[in-house]
Design brief:
By secondary structure, the chain is of the alpha/beta class. The chain is built from 18 helices and 23 strands. The protein has a 7-stranded parallel beta sheet, with helices on both faces. Strands 1-4-7-8-9-10 form a 6-stranded mixed beta sheet, with helices on both faces. It has a two-stranded antiparallel ribbon with strand order 2-3. A hairpin with a 4-residue loop joins β18 and β19. α2 crosses α3 and α8 crosses α9. The longest helix has 19 residues. The chain starts with 5 loop residues before the first helix and ends with a helix.
């Protein structure tokens, strides 16, 4: 629909923000020309008195000199020509606090000055429309959301006939060029034509701006719903949700060409929330943390990274050890590289097990650690069972492509040798008997002896290909119905993993990985 004027849309939007708890202001109220201004000049994007008051309120034990020093660390620009680099620097200060030293009673002391109250009892939230800012050129963003005096969300609204989200995106892109200081502390941007509404990071192109289609992670609104802007406002722009996004759902990936800022989609955000609860329930019980079924191309690697960062810092898990498990060396390397680029979220450097002995050393620890391994490293010596490595319950095993090589719990008699043998998943649980196991897959299976839900527990979250296509996360798949139907006898199907283990038992791990790649191509064909 087209609004009579953009001002009408803006006013309705501001009213909705007021209902969420934001203090509402017009841009004229924060003009440097008014008495007791919140900005010294039109070039300033921070509300400095609000920011200083928040620092003092959140750090009552610190002297004014320390508060002023912390404020200057955040306020003074370091990367003058690269707004994404500067955003990454400031993001770290906002999330982790500002480390400094100060003198008190003649002694030098260390402090970490908190910028945000994560319990959200002492934060200052404001929504201000029509904010005049002077940079390379003067610009007036429609709405800016401020957290403790810092611009957090920039919103551009287009409500007239012929102006759409692409026009709103182009406007934000112009702001980044003309008034880059506005984005130093930003979390995300929002664009809307009054009906359609999307959000994206500082680095995102228009094709990477995403829908936010839920209020609670359960009910999903249609993409073209007339309530899309309201859903995004009430689902994403709630202060509590923005705080979670800021702290746990932002990464800066740098593959050698400068950092790219990435933030979670609604499906990743709510899947992590649900997974944390499911892991907590499974701990000390049956260890079945559940299955996250997200289709290929929907950002599964980032989802795993976000979940890893959340559980590593969750007080309920008491400094857990995290084991990331794949069944192929190339997948292990790819996922390890992603986690390595996002290590700031994890709080420590991930490590990759080189061999069986190294894996045992890495897991033989009391706390902490983000460890990568292939499941083949849990293969015991012939005729033996893999030794127990730890009986701790705060070991969390995240299994990628969990529909493969995660079965074979029943004992199997090898007729030629008379040997009793179990599958790799059995050996894994012998090594980590009290761990919590969480599965990630785009194609869960349900066969006799090979049931993803049976092994890992109920579905935590489902994001199927139809939903991903609607969101634009994956491209539509078109096909002609000419493929011959392929069926496998249940007895044959249930024995595939055992046969694979038997066929590769004597191979080195790199040979096993090559065989796995061949079998995965067959799997892809059958799955199609």
């Amino acid at each position: 629909m087209a609004w009579a004027t953009e001002a009408d849309l803006e006013q309705v939007f501001m009213d909705d923000l007021g209902a969420l708890g934001y203090a509402l202001h017009r841009g004229a109220e924060i003009s440097p020309d008014v008495p007791h201004p919140l900005r010294p000049s039109f070039r300033d994007t921070l509300l400095e008195p609000v920011f200083l008051a928040a620092l003092a309120r959140l750090n009552p034990a610190l002297p004014t000199t320390a508060i002023n020093e912390a404020a200057s660390r955040l306020r003074d620009i370091v990367f003058t020509t690269d707004v994404v680099q500067e955003n990454r620097r400031v993001h770290d200060l906002m999330v982790n606090g500002i480390a400094l030293t100060y003198f008190s009673d003649g002694e030098e002391r260390n402090a970490r000055v908190q910028v945000v109250d994560w319990k959200n009892t002492q934060n200052d939230w404001r929504a201000i429309n029509q904010v005049d800012i002077v940079g390379k050129n003067p610009r007036i963003p429609d709405v800016v959301l401020f957290l403790n005096g810092l611009p957090l969300v920039v919103i551009e609204l287009k409500g007239t006939e012929g102006a759409d989200t692409a026009a709103a995106y182009n406007q934000v892109d112009t702001y980044k060029e003309d008034i880059p200081d506005l984005f130093r502390t930003s979390l995300l941007n929002v664009i809307s034509d009054g009906v359609t509404a999307r959000y994206g990071s500082l680095s995102a192109g228009l094709d990477r701006y995403m829908n936010w289609r839920t209020l609670d992670g359960k009910t999903i609104e249609p993409v073209n719903s007339a309530l899309a802007l309201q859903t995004l406002t009430n689902g994403l722009l709630k202060p509590a949700t923005l705080l979670e996004m800021l702290r746990w759902f932002v990464v800066f990936e740098d593959e050698g060409k400068g950092p790219i800022k990435k933030i979670a989609g609604y499906h990743q955000f709510h899947a992590v929330r649900k997974a944390v609860a499911s892991i907590g329930e499974a701990r000390g019980q049956d260890g079945k943390g559940g299955v996250i079924w997200h289709t290929q191309g929907s950002g599964k690697s980032l989802l795993m990274t976000f979940l890893a960062g959340r559980v590593m810092h969750h007080s309920d898990f008491q400094n857990p050890t995290l084991l990331i498990l794949t069944d192929r060396n190339d997948l292990d390397n790819q996922l390890f590289a992603t986690f390595g680029r996002c290590k700031a979220l994890l709080g420590e450097d991930p490590v990759q097990a080189e061999n069986v002995a190294n894996l045992q050393d890495l897991l033989n620890r009391d706390v902490g650690g983000v460890i990568f391994s292939t499941i083949q490293k849990f293969r015991p010596e012939k005729g033996e069972v893999f030794p127990e490595l730890t009986n701790r319950s705060n070991v969390i095993v995240m299994v990628d492509e969990a529909h493969r090589t995660q079965y074979g719990f029943e004992a199997k008699l090898v007729k030629e040798t008379g040997e009793i043998r179990h599958g790799l998943a059995y050996q894994l649980r012998q090594a980590l008997p009290n761990a919590v196991y969480v599965a990630f897959t785009g194609t869960p299976v349900s066969l006799v002896g090979a049931d993803t839900v049976g092994v890992f527990g109920e579905y935590i979250d489902v994001y199927d290909i139809a939903q991903a296509v609607q969101d634009g996360a994956t491209v539509p798949i078109y096909y002609e119905a000419r493929v011959a139907k392929i069926e496998l006898d249940q007895d044959v199907a249930s024995g595939l993993d055992d046969d694979f283990d038997e066929a590769t038992e004597t191979l080195e791990e790199d040979q096993t990985a090559a065989a796995a790649r061949k079998w995965s191509r067959v799997e892809a064909l059958v799955g199609a």
